[in-house]
UniProtKB/TrEMBL annotation:
The gene is LOC100282174. This is 4-hydroxybenzoate polyprenyltransferase, mitochondrial. It catalyses: an all-trans-polyprenyl diphosphate + 4-hydroxybenzoate = a 4-hydroxy-3-(all-trans-polyprenyl)benzoate + diphosphate; 4-hydroxybenzoate + (2E)-geranyl diphosphate = 3-geranyl-4-hydroxybenzoate + diphosphate. One of its GO terms (biological process) is isoprenoid biosynthetic process. It comes from Zea mays. It is an enzyme of class 2 (transferase).
Protein backbone atom coordinates (compact mmCIF):
# COMPACT_ATOMS: atom_id res chain seq x y z
CA UNK A 1 0.00 0.00 0.00
CA UNK A 2 2.89 2.36 0.74
CA UNK A 3 4.13 1.80 -2.83
CA UNK A 4 0.73 2.62 -4.33
CA UNK A 5 0.36 5.76 -2.24
CA UNK A 6 3.84 6.83 -3.28
CA UNK A 7 2.89 6.18 -6.93
CA UNK A 8 -0.14 8.47 -6.61
CA UNK A 9 1.98 11.17 -5.03
CA UNK A 10 4.63 10.97 -7.75
CA UNK A 11 2.10 10.95 -10.62
CA UNK A 12 0.40 14.02 -9.13
CA UNK A 13 3.75 15.77 -8.88
CA UNK A 14 4.59 15.01 -12.54
CA UNK A 15 1.17 15.66 -14.05
CA UNK A 16 0.29 18.60 -11.76
CA UNK A 17 -3.17 17.16 -11.46
CA UNK A 18 -3.70 16.77 -15.24
CA UNK A 19 -4.24 13.03 -15.26
CA UNK A 20 -7.92 12.38 -14.74
CA UNK A 21 -7.69 8.75 -13.54
CA UNK A 22 -5.86 9.81 -10.31
CA UNK A 23 -9.09 10.30 -8.30
CA UNK A 24 -10.16 6.83 -9.35
CA UNK A 25 -6.80 5.46 -8.27
CA UNK A 26 -7.09 7.28 -4.97
CA UNK A 27 -10.54 5.77 -4.46
CA UNK A 28 -9.14 2.35 -5.25
CA UNK A 29 -6.42 2.86 -2.64
CA UNK A 30 -8.97 3.95 -0.07
CA UNK A 31 -11.13 0.89 -0.72
CA UNK A 32 -8.18 -1.45 -0.47
CA UNK A 33 -6.64 0.15 2.62
CA UNK A 34 -7.54 -1.21 6.08
CA UNK A 35 -9.90 1.04 8.05
CA UNK A 36 -7.48 1.30 10.93
CA UNK A 37 -5.98 4.81 11.23
CA UNK A 38 -2.65 3.25 12.01
CA UNK A 39 -2.47 1.88 8.45
CA UNK A 40 -2.20 5.38 7.02
CA UNK A 41 0.94 6.24 9.00
CA UNK A 42 4.51 5.35 7.97
CA UNK A 43 6.11 2.34 9.56
CA UNK A 44 7.22 3.33 13.09
CA UNK A 45 10.67 1.90 12.62
CA UNK A 46 11.16 3.19 9.13
CA UNK A 47 9.72 6.71 8.62
CA UNK A 48 11.51 7.07 5.25
CA UNK A 49 9.79 4.04 3.66
CA UNK A 50 7.52 6.15 1.43
CA UNK A 51 10.49 8.25 0.30
CA UNK A 52 12.36 5.15 -0.83
CA UNK A 53 9.37 4.16 -3.00
CA UNK A 54 9.26 7.63 -4.58
CA UNK A 55 12.98 7.42 -5.34
CA UNK A 56 12.44 4.02 -6.97
CA UNK A 57 9.60 5.44 -9.10
CA UNK A 58 11.80 8.31 -10.26
CA UNK A 59 14.19 5.81 -11.81
CA UNK A 60 11.41 4.61 -14.16
CA UNK A 61 10.51 6.51 -17.36
CA UNK A 62 7.29 8.53 -17.05
CA UNK A 63 4.09 6.95 -18.34
CA UNK A 64 2.59 8.87 -21.28
CA UNK A 65 -0.79 10.36 -20.52
CA UNK A 66 -2.23 8.69 -23.63
CA UNK A 67 -1.58 5.33 -22.03
CA UNK A 68 -4.40 6.13 -19.63
CA UNK A 69 -6.55 8.53 -21.60
CA UNK A 70 -6.56 6.79 -25.00
CA UNK A 71 -5.47 3.15 -24.82
CA UNK A 72 -6.77 2.47 -28.34
CA UNK A 73 -4.10 4.84 -29.66
CA UNK A 74 -1.42 2.75 -28.01
CA UNK A 75 -2.88 -0.41 -29.58
CA UNK A 76 -2.56 1.00 -33.08
CA UNK A 77 0.86 2.59 -32.48
CA UNK A 78 2.23 -0.61 -31.06
CA UNK A 79 2.84 0.77 -27.56
CA UNK A 80 0.43 -1.85 -26.21
CA UNK A 81 -0.45 -5.23 -27.76
CA UNK A 82 -3.58 -5.03 -29.87
CA UNK A 83 -5.30 -7.73 -27.86
CA UNK A 84 -5.28 -5.80 -24.55
CA UNK A 85 -8.76 -4.83 -23.53
CA UNK A 86 -9.97 -1.28 -24.06
CA UNK A 87 -11.33 -1.34 -20.52
CA UNK A 88 -9.95 0.97 -17.87
CA UNK A 89 -6.54 0.00 -16.51
CA UNK A 90 -8.16 0.11 -13.06
CA UNK A 91 -10.74 -2.53 -13.96
CA UNK A 92 -10.84 -5.39 -11.51
CA UNK A 93 -12.00 -7.88 -14.14
CA UNK A 94 -9.34 -10.45 -14.85
CA UNK A 95 -10.38 -10.68 -18.49
CA UNK A 96 -9.94 -6.95 -19.10
CA UNK A 97 -6.82 -6.28 -17.05
CA UNK A 98 -4.69 -9.14 -18.29
CA UNK A 99 -2.90 -9.07 -21.68
CA UNK A 100 -3.46 -11.84 -24.14
CA UNK A 101 -0.93 -14.57 -24.45
CA UNK A 102 2.10 -13.71 -26.53
CA UNK A 103 1.13 -16.48 -28.93
CA UNK A 104 -1.90 -14.37 -29.99
CA UNK A 105 0.19 -11.43 -31.13
CA UNK A 106 0.54 -11.15 -34.90
CA UNK A 107 3.74 -10.70 -36.84
CA UNK A 108 2.80 -7.04 -37.29
CA UNK A 109 2.88 -6.55 -33.51
CA UNK A 110 6.26 -8.24 -33.29
CA UNK A 111 8.21 -7.13 -36.36
CA UNK A 112 6.80 -3.96 -37.92
CA UNK A 113 8.47 -0.72 -36.69
CA UNK A 114 6.28 1.39 -34.46
CA UNK A 115 5.97 4.28 -36.93
CA UNK A 116 4.78 1.96 -39.73
CA UNK A 117 2.46 -0.15 -37.59
CA UNK A 118 -0.70 1.99 -38.06
CA UNK A 119 -0.29 1.71 -41.83
CA UNK A 120 0.14 -2.06 -41.59
CA UNK A 121 -3.05 -2.20 -39.53
CA UNK A 122 -4.81 -0.01 -42.09
CA UNK A 123 -3.85 -2.44 -44.87
CA UNK A 124 -4.95 -5.36 -42.61
CA UNK A 125 -1.58 -7.04 -42.89
CA UNK A 126 -2.27 -8.54 -39.48
CA UNK A 127 -5.37 -10.28 -40.92
CA UNK A 128 -4.25 -12.15 -44.05
CA UNK A 129 -7.58 -13.91 -44.60
CA UNK A 130 -8.81 -11.05 -46.78
CA UNK A 131 -5.75 -11.38 -49.01
CA UNK A 132 -6.35 -15.13 -49.36
CA UNK A 133 -9.99 -14.57 -50.32
CA UNK A 134 -8.92 -12.05 -52.96
CA UNK A 135 -6.03 -14.15 -54.26
CA UNK A 136 -7.73 -17.55 -54.64
CA UNK A 137 -9.97 -16.65 -57.62
CA UNK A 138 -6.87 -15.29 -59.38
CA UNK A 139 -4.98 -18.51 -58.68
CA UNK A 140 -7.91 -20.62 -59.88
CA UNK A 141 -8.09 -18.71 -63.15
CA UNK A 142 -4.35 -18.74 -63.85
CA UNK A 143 -4.17 -22.47 -63.18
CA UNK A 144 -7.20 -23.38 -65.26
CA UNK A 145 -5.65 -21.38 -68.13
CA UNK A 146 -2.50 -23.53 -68.12
CA UNK A 147 -1.89 -25.97 -70.93
CA UNK A 148 -3.00 -29.56 -70.26
CA UNK A 149 -0.29 -31.44 -68.36
CA UNK A 150 1.60 -28.26 -67.42
CA UNK A 151 2.04 -26.38 -64.19
CA UNK A 152 0.56 -22.88 -64.00
CA UNK A 153 2.74 -19.87 -64.79
CA UNK A 154 4.66 -19.34 -61.53
CA UNK A 155 5.59 -15.76 -62.39
CA UNK A 156 1.92 -14.90 -62.85
CA UNK A 157 1.01 -16.58 -59.57
CA UNK A 158 3.65 -14.47 -57.80
CA UNK A 159 2.57 -11.23 -59.49
CA UNK A 160 -1.09 -11.80 -58.67
CA UNK A 161 -0.19 -12.76 -55.11
CA UNK A 162 1.59 -9.43 -54.62
CA UNK A 163 -1.25 -7.65 -56.40
CA UNK A 164 -3.76 -9.22 -54.01
CA UNK A 165 -1.86 -7.82 -51.02
CA UNK A 166 -1.74 -4.33 -52.54
CA UNK A 167 -5.30 -4.23 -53.86
CA UNK A 168 -6.75 -5.60 -50.64
CA UNK A 169 -4.78 -2.99 -48.68
CA UNK A 170 -5.98 -0.23 -51.01
CA UNK A 171 -9.57 -1.42 -50.67
CA UNK A 172 -9.32 -1.42 -46.88
CA UNK A 173 -7.84 2.08 -46.94
CA UNK A 174 -10.71 3.39 -49.10
CA UNK A 175 -13.22 1.58 -46.92
CA UNK A 176 -11.81 3.02 -43.69
CA UNK A 177 -11.59 6.54 -45.13
CA UNK A 178 -15.25 6.51 -46.13
CA UNK A 179 -16.44 4.67 -43.00
CA UNK A 180 -14.39 6.45 -40.35
CA UNK A 181 -17.49 8.09 -38.85
CA UNK A 182 -19.26 4.72 -38.74
CA UNK A 183 -16.30 2.69 -37.48
CA UNK A 184 -16.02 4.67 -34.26
CA UNK A 185 -19.59 3.63 -33.40
CA UNK A 186 -19.00 -0.10 -33.97
CA UNK A 187 -17.26 -2.06 -31.24
CA UNK A 188 -15.23 -4.28 -33.57
CA UNK A 189 -13.92 -1.38 -35.68
CA UNK A 190 -13.51 1.34 -33.06
CA UNK A 191 -9.72 0.91 -32.78
CA UNK A 192 -9.03 1.19 -36.53
CA UNK A 193 -6.46 3.90 -37.35
CA UNK A 194 -8.87 6.55 -38.67
CA UNK A 195 -11.65 5.88 -36.18
CA UNK A 196 -9.24 6.06 -33.24
CA UNK A 197 -7.44 9.15 -34.57
CA UNK A 198 -4.01 7.55 -34.93
CA UNK A 199 -3.91 8.43 -38.65
CA UNK A 200 -5.41 11.44 -40.35
CA UNK A 201 -7.39 11.20 -43.61
CA UNK A 202 -4.57 13.04 -45.39
CA UNK A 203 -2.08 10.39 -44.27
CA UNK A 204 -4.50 7.74 -45.47
CA UNK A 205 -4.80 9.32 -48.92
CA UNK A 206 -0.99 9.42 -49.19
CA UNK A 207 -0.75 5.76 -48.22
CA UNK A 208 -3.47 4.89 -50.74
CA UNK A 209 -1.49 6.63 -53.47
CA UNK A 210 1.60 4.56 -52.67
CA UNK A 211 -0.38 1.31 -52.80
CA UNK A 212 -1.99 2.21 -56.11
CA UNK A 213 1.36 3.22 -57.58
CA UNK A 214 2.86 -0.15 -56.64
CA UNK A 215 -0.21 -1.90 -58.03
CA UNK A 216 0.24 -0.02 -61.29
CA UNK A 217 3.78 -1.37 -61.46
CA UNK A 218 2.39 -4.90 -61.35
CA UNK A 219 -0.40 -4.17 -63.84
CA UNK A 220 2.08 -2.80 -66.39
CA UNK A 221 3.79 -6.19 -66.51
CA UNK A 222 0.64 -7.76 -67.98
CA UNK A 223 -0.65 -7.64 -71.56
CA UNK A 224 -2.72 -4.71 -72.82
CA UNK A 225 -6.02 -6.60 -72.57
CA UNK A 226 -5.31 -7.36 -68.91
CA UNK A 227 -4.25 -3.80 -68.15
CA UNK A 228 -7.59 -2.43 -69.29
CA UNK A 229 -9.50 -5.17 -67.49
CA UNK A 230 -7.46 -4.70 -64.32
CA UNK A 231 -7.80 -0.91 -64.28
CA UNK A 232 -11.58 -1.20 -64.64
CA UNK A 233 -11.74 -3.08 -61.34
CA UNK A 234 -10.87 0.15 -59.50
CA UNK A 235 -14.41 1.38 -60.14
CA UNK A 236 -15.66 -1.52 -58.03
CA UNK A 237 -12.96 -1.08 -55.38
CA UNK A 238 -13.75 2.60 -54.82
CA UNK A 239 -17.55 2.27 -54.90
CA UNK A 240 -17.98 -0.87 -52.79
CA UNK A 241 -17.72 0.86 -49.37
CA UNK A 242 -20.73 3.03 -50.27
CA UNK A 243 -23.01 0.11 -51.06
CA UNK A 244 -23.88 -0.67 -47.44
CA UNK A 245 -25.56 2.73 -47.25
CA UNK A 246 -27.93 2.08 -50.16
CA UNK A 247 -28.64 -1.65 -50.46
CA UNK A 248 -29.06 -4.74 -48.32
CA UNK A 249 -26.84 -6.56 -50.84
CA UNK A 250 -23.34 -5.09 -50.35
CA UNK A 251 -22.03 -8.66 -50.09
CA UNK A 252 -23.08 -9.29 -53.70
CA UNK A 253 -21.21 -6.16 -54.78
CA UNK A 254 -18.19 -7.35 -52.81
CA UNK A 255 -18.44 -10.62 -54.75
CA UNK A 256 -18.19 -8.71 -58.03
CA UNK A 257 -15.13 -6.90 -56.68
CA UNK A 258 -13.25 -9.67 -54.89
CA UNK A 259 -13.60 -12.19 -57.72
CA UNK A 260 -12.50 -9.91 -60.54
CA UNK A 261 -9.27 -11.89 -60.52
CA UNK A 262 -11.17 -14.85 -62.01
CA UNK A 263 -11.51 -12.75 -65.18
CA UNK A 264 -8.10 -11.14 -64.97
CA UNK A 265 -6.05 -14.28 -64.35
CA UNK A 266 -7.29 -15.99 -67.52
CA UNK A 267 -6.85 -12.79 -69.52
CA UNK A 268 -3.23 -12.45 -68.33
CA UNK A 269 -2.46 -15.86 -69.85
CA UNK A 270 -4.76 -16.02 -72.88
CA UNK A 271 -5.23 -12.30 -73.72
CA UNK A 272 -8.96 -12.98 -74.00
CA UNK A 273 -11.96 -14.24 -72.04
CA UNK A 274 -13.58 -17.64 -72.64
CA UNK A 275 -17.15 -17.17 -71.35
CA UNK A 276 -17.90 -20.89 -71.12
CA UNK A 277 -15.09 -21.39 -68.61
CA UNK A 278 -14.58 -18.05 -66.92
CA UNK A 279 -18.14 -16.82 -66.40
CA UNK A 280 -19.12 -19.93 -64.37
CA UNK A 281 -15.88 -19.52 -62.40
CA UNK A 282 -16.68 -15.86 -61.74
CA UNK A 283 -20.25 -16.76 -60.74
CA UNK A 284 -18.93 -19.40 -58.35
CA UNK A 285 -16.72 -16.82 -56.69
CA UNK A 286 -19.60 -14.36 -56.28
CA UNK A 287 -21.82 -17.02 -54.67
CA UNK A 288 -18.93 -18.07 -52.41
CA UNK A 289 -18.49 -14.46 -51.30
CA UNK A 290 -22.19 -14.24 -50.46
CA UNK A 291 -21.76 -17.24 -48.16
CA UNK A 292 -18.66 -16.17 -46.26
CA UNK A 293 -19.35 -12.45 -46.09
CA UNK A 294 -22.92 -12.96 -44.89
CA UNK A 295 -21.54 -15.08 -42.06
CA UNK A 296 -18.97 -12.36 -41.40
CA UNK A 297 -21.66 -9.65 -41.37
CA UNK A 298 -23.53 -11.40 -38.57
CA UNK A 299 -20.75 -10.22 -36.23
CA UNK A 300 -21.89 -6.60 -36.60
CA UNK A 301 -25.64 -6.89 -37.12
CA UNK A 302 -26.56 -5.19 -33.82
CA UNK A 303 -24.18 -2.30 -34.46
CA UNK A 304 -25.31 -2.06 -38.10
CA UNK A 305 -28.90 -1.59 -36.95
CA UNK A 306 -27.84 1.21 -34.61
CA UNK A 307 -25.82 3.16 -37.18
CA UNK A 308 -28.21 2.49 -40.07
CA UNK A 309 -26.07 0.48 -42.51
CA UNK A 310 -27.33 -2.53 -44.44
CA UNK A 311 -26.13 -6.09 -45.07
CA UNK A 312 -27.40 -9.48 -46.20
CA UNK A 313 -27.17 -10.57 -42.56
CA UNK A 314 -29.96 -8.11 -41.80
CA UNK A 315 -31.80 -8.89 -45.04
CA UNK A 316 -31.86 -12.64 -44.49
CA UNK A 317 -32.35 -12.56 -40.71
CA UNK A 318 -33.51 -15.91 -39.34
CA UNK A 319 -33.51 -17.37 -42.85
CA UNK A 320 -29.78 -16.81 -43.30
CA UNK A 321 -28.84 -20.49 -43.34
CA UNK A 322 -31.39 -21.24 -46.07
CA UNK A 323 -30.11 -18.40 -48.21
CA UNK A 324 -26.43 -19.21 -47.85
CA UNK A 325 -27.15 -22.91 -48.43
CA UNK A 326 -28.60 -21.94 -51.79
CA UNK A 327 -25.62 -19.77 -52.63
CA UNK A 328 -23.26 -22.56 -51.57
CA UNK A 329 -25.01 -25.03 -53.87
CA UNK A 330 -24.84 -22.52 -56.75
CA UNK A 331 -21.12 -22.02 -56.05
CA UNK A 332 -20.33 -25.75 -56.21
CA UNK A 333 -22.48 -26.24 -59.30
CA UNK A 334 -20.77 -23.37 -61.12
CA UNK A 335 -17.33 -24.73 -60.21
CA UNK A 336 -18.29 -28.13 -61.61
CA UNK A 337 -19.56 -26.54 -64.84
CA UNK A 338 -16.40 -24.46 -65.27
CA UNK A 339 -14.15 -27.49 -64.77
CA UNK A 340 -16.21 -29.57 -67.18
CA UNK A 341 -16.04 -26.89 -69.89
CA UNK A 342 -12.28 -26.60 -69.32
CA UNK A 343 -11.81 -30.37 -69.75
CA UNK A 344 -10.16 -30.78 -66.36
CA UNK A 345 -9.18 -34.32 -65.39
CA UNK A 346 -10.95 -36.56 -62.90
CA UNK A 347 -8.99 -35.40 -59.79
CA UNK A 348 -10.82 -32.09 -60.00
CA UNK A 349 -14.13 -33.56 -58.90
CA UNK A 350 -13.09 -35.25 -55.63
CA UNK A 351 -11.51 -31.95 -54.56
CA UNK A 352 -14.69 -30.09 -55.46
CA UNK A 353 -16.65 -32.60 -53.38
CA UNK A 354 -14.30 -31.94 -50.46
CA UNK A 355 -14.75 -28.18 -50.93
CA UNK A 356 -18.52 -28.66 -50.96
CA UNK A 357 -18.26 -30.60 -47.70
CA UNK A 358 -16.22 -27.79 -46.15
CA UNK A 359 -18.83 -25.26 -47.21
CA UNK A 360 -21.64 -27.45 -45.87
CA UNK A 361 -19.79 -27.73 -42.54
CA UNK A 362 -19.61 -23.95 -42.31
CA UNK A 363 -23.29 -23.43 -42.98
CA UNK A 364 -24.57 -26.25 -40.80
CA UNK A 365 -22.43 -25.58 -37.72
CA UNK A 366 -22.06 -21.79 -37.61
CA UNK A 367 -23.65 -20.12 -34.61
CA UNK A 368 -24.88 -16.86 -36.10
CA UNK A 369 -25.40 -15.37 -32.63
CA UNK A 370 -21.73 -15.89 -31.70
CA UNK A 371 -19.24 -13.35 -33.04
CA UNK A 372 -16.29 -15.63 -32.35
CA UNK A 373 -17.85 -18.58 -34.19
CA UNK A 374 -18.85 -16.41 -37.16
CA UNK A 375 -15.26 -15.20 -37.40
CA UNK A 376 -13.93 -18.76 -37.10
CA UNK A 377 -16.11 -19.97 -39.97
CA UNK A 378 -15.23 -16.92 -42.06
CA UNK A 379 -11.48 -17.51 -41.64
CA UNK A 380 -11.90 -21.19 -42.56
CA UNK A 381 -12.72 -20.18 -46.14
CA UNK A 382 -9.01 -20.08 -46.95
CA UNK A 383 -9.22 -23.88 -46.91
CA UNK A 384 -12.18 -23.87 -49.29
CA UNK A 385 -10.12 -21.82 -51.73
CA UNK A 386 -7.13 -24.12 -51.29
CA UNK A 387 -9.25 -27.22 -52.02
CA UNK A 388 -10.61 -25.71 -55.24
CA UNK A 389 -7.11 -24.64 -56.30
CA UNK A 390 -5.74 -28.14 -55.64
CA UNK A 391 -8.53 -29.67 -57.69
CA UNK A 392 -7.84 -27.37 -60.64
CA UNK A 393 -4.08 -28.01 -60.39
CA UNK A 394 -4.30 -31.80 -60.34
CA UNK A 395 -7.16 -31.80 -62.82
CA UNK A 396 -5.07 -29.80 -65.28
CA UNK A 397 -1.99 -31.97 -64.81
CA UNK A 398 -3.82 -35.15 -65.77
CA UNK A 399 -6.10 -33.65 -68.45
Amino acid sequence: MALLRAAVSELRRRGRGALTPLPALSSLLSSLSPRSPASTRPEPNNPHADRRHVIALRRCPPLPASAVLAPELLHARGLLPRHWSHASPLSTSSSSSRPADKAQLTWVDKWIPEAARPYAMLARLDKPIGTWLLAWPCMWSITIAAMPGDLPDLKMLALFGCGAVLLRGAGCTVNDLLDRDIDNKVERTRSRPFASGVLTPLQGVGFLGIQLLLGLGILLQLNNYSRILGASSLVLVFSYPLMKRFTFWPQAYLGLTFNWGALLGWAAIKESIDPAIILPLYTAGICWTLVYDTIYAHQDKEDDLKVGVKSTALRFGDLTKYWISGFGAACVGSLALSGYNADLGWPYYPFIAAAAAQLAWQVSTVDLSSRSDCNKKFVSNKWFGALVFSGILFGRLVS
